[in-house]
Amino acid sequence: MATFTRIADDQTPSIIVHPEHEIAKINDNIYGGFTEHMGRCIYGGIYDPTSPLADENGFRKDVIEAMKDLNVPVVRYPGGNFVATYHWLDGVGPREKRPKRPELAWLGIEPNTFGTDEFMKWCEVVGTEPYLCLNFGTGTLDEALAWLEYCNSTQDTYYANLRRQNGHEEPYNVKYWALGNECWGPWQVAQLTKEDYAKKAYQWAKALKLLDPSITLILCGETGYSSWDYYVLKECVKWDVHGLSGDTTKSLIDMHSIHIYTADADHLPNATAPRAAERAIQMTTALIDLARIENGVPETVPRQTICFDEWNVWDPTRAPGEQGAEEKYTLSDALAVAVFLNGFIRQAKDVGMANIAQSVNVISPLMTSKEGVLKQTTWWPLLLFSKYMRGASVAVNVKSPEYEGRTNPKWVRGTIETPLLDVCAARGVDGWVGLAVTNVSEERDFEVRIEGVKEGEVKVYVVGGESVGVVNTEGEEKVGIVERTWDGKGLFTFGKHSFTLLRWKA
Ligand code: AHR
């Protein structure tokens, strides 16, 4: 377990790591990405055929390299809100025949020059797995079945043959499919009530699994702590006792999606806001268990996990979606991203996937320009986590002072602690232990007693900066990683407003 004990400001903080006490395996998919037809994410982000930086497919090579560096295991596509009016057939076949369409989520024009086959190719080049989201707005079940057939079928049937005709003999075997996106939101084209959604999702799930029982289906949740989440889980997390999916040992629904964006103009409410995401994971897990208990789902049916398929720092009033949502991230935001990731590791047992929203240009750590890519402040903790915090989440006990001021959302105060030192630990399959420590304090360096660290060479990676407000701009990347080593003896100082990763071989 990860425990936190609050201490007085004048006491010495401590961290005890237990590399042998495994909490749960960390699913690599928590380092997932998300590419939506929105702003400059697809066009001008991952796909820019007129750019000298593009490869023969029109894909930005620098973006591909960045995705490879991040080792992104899975990428969600094509939305987001965009998907609510997306007809996938518009985006396949000869480009000159593809229709341009009005786009109603972000009020643009969708040229459809990038579609399913281009996305699959991009995933192959990047070395990542596709995760597709179905149109629950203007889309039909027939269309969804046709897309699944196009992507996965090996049979001699119309849409599988259409894929072959488009030059793709082999199926793409897309495993992850989402049953809509944010269908509860008033901004959705064809917003649904929870009753209508649950009914529709269950029927679609049945049909989709009849066509391909091997897929993983993701139910559309809200934040994880709403009556929508409770209701749709209760209605849809059922034992497939009649074998509707062809398998009586499973459930039609495999995962439950939740989304949370956090932001605040003040540093401490901003950096501690992702504690809400961790509490949301705990609440969602309870609702999943409740649905299983109330519906009598036997323990032989694998427990549904959480698909946190949109998370990040985002204030839509300062970076509106219709204007491309190009957030400029500060060091404070980078610390918030680290707190999000700490939470995913601590709650590894219940998180089957998480996708930073988004991967390029739109509320993203990675920004393209004509000349190249800029790594925003938030890139650096994400990179360190993805590189080094895989394997298993391990127990850690933390004593530190706590932030006591205003939180955002307000309910964080009273439901979950807000430590100044936010910590998680992992043990990799290679035997290396990683200790991730976010010191959110704006004023205080903390000298910390660390137990469980091995004396000898400890690798130290620090993401920090002059002040919590610094941002990276082209030509001036003020926030990056500073590396050094430590001998593992005595107290270790975690500098104010910094993220530190310590690594040693167990
Ligand atoms: O990621 C940006 C948008 O945020 C997505 O399109 C939507 O699902 C969410 O509201």
TrEMBL record:
- Top-rank taxon, per record: Eukaryota
A GO molecular-function descriptor: alpha-L-arabinofuranosidase activity
Quote the catalytic activity from the record: Hydrolysis of terminal non-reducing alpha-L-arabinofuranoside residues in alpha-L-arabinosides
Q: What is its EC number?
A: 3.2.1.55
Domain Alpha-L-arabinofuranosidase C-terminal stretches:
309-498
Q: Which InterPro entries match?
A: Alpha-L-AF_C (IPR010720), ASD1_cat (IPR055235), GH (IPR017853), Glyco_hydro_b (IPR013780)
- Signal peptide location: none
Give the protein name, as stated in the record.
non-reducing end alpha-L-arabinofuranosidase
